[in-house]
Every structure is written in structure tokens, then in C-alpha cells.
Design a protein that fits this description.
Layout: H1 8-26, H2 29-41, H3 44-54, H4 60-69, H5 84-94, H6 98-119, H7 128-133
Bound molecules: zinc ion.
């Protein structure tokens, strides 16, 4: 697969399946929704990257083509980071919402693991600290730009 090519449809399908499991275990639509939202909306950071690097927003197909071909020299993806897992866990525990935190972590973790497995990037790519240590430089991170 191409870099960063895990498709939104794949995330929708897997997030729906994982969230069905959350519903089967909890019988809670709130927890189910949290799992699903966490599993899908993590990818909004691609739009933020596009805005920061391109200094504009475009219709989704144009942005998706840009992501698919990885045209940006920088790759931030602020929401994609295994470091967020303990943060979410500690925050939910501190706020007295461990079930909500668990549901969010189910959705969030499966998304990251699916990206890690499907996108074929450096094993540490989905660590925010690894990307930061490489200056968020797409070339250093192995997310190469492709010519037309
Ligand atoms: Zn993703």
C-alpha cells in the first residue's frame, strides 16, 4: 500500500465492527458512540495538516488526492500518536470516567493499529515523539512525495 493510504472506508468498517463489540459488551449507546467517533475522527488531523501546509482548505476529493500522494514536506498528524493512549487513560481515570475512557481507547487504539499495520511505514511512525524528533519532515519519516 502507498504511504498513509489506509482508506476512510476501511476505518468506517472496522470502527463500526469494534463499536458493535463495545455495544455487545456494554449495551450503552454512549460508549458505542465514543468508540466509533474516536475510531473515525482521529483522521481530522489530516485536514489540519493540509490547512497548515497548503494554507487553505479544498473539497475533500482534492485533499484526499493530496494525502494519497503525500505531497506535503511536513507530516504532523497531531492526533496520531501512541503517546495519547496513556494520556487518555489517565485523563479518563482522573475524571472518574474509566468506561468512557476505555471506549475511546478501543476506537482510538484500533485506528492506530490498523494504520500501523496497513500503511507500511517506519515502525515508530505513529509515535508523535518520533515524528517530532525527525522535524516532522516527510522525507525523513519515509513518507516520500511522488511525482505525478
Ligand atoms: Zn489514521
Amino acid at each position: 500500500m502507498d504511504p498513509l493510504s489506509m482508506r476512510p472506508r476501511g476505518h468506517l468498517i472496522i470502527s463500526t465492527a469494534v463499536s458493535a463489540g463495545v455495544y455487545a459488551a456494554s449495551r450503552s449507546w454512549t460508549l458505542t458512540s465514543l468508540s466509533w467517533i474516536a475510531g473515525v475522527l482521529i483522521d481530522v488531523d489530516h485536514v489540519l495538516d493540509y490547512l497548515v501546509t497548503q494554507k487553505r482548505l479544498d473539497p475533500y476529493p482534492m485533499m484526499f488526492k493530496h494525502f494519497d500522494r503525500q505531497r506535503s514536506k511536513k507530516c504532523y498528524l497531531w492526533l496520531h500518536g501512541f503517546e495519547w493512549i496513556p494520556v487518555i487513560g489517565l485523563l479518563s481515570w482522573t475524571l472518574g470516567q474509566p468506561l468512557a475512557g476505555s471506549a475511546i481507547l478501543m476506537g482510538y487504539s484500533q485506528h492506530l493499529l490498523l494504520d500501523q499495520w496497513a500503511n507500511g511505514l517506519h515502525p515508530l511512525f505513529y509515535f508523535l515523539t518520533f515524528r517530532a524528533a525527525n522535524g516532522f519532515e516527510a522525507e525523513k519519516l519515509g513518507v516520500l512525495e511522488k511525482p505525478d
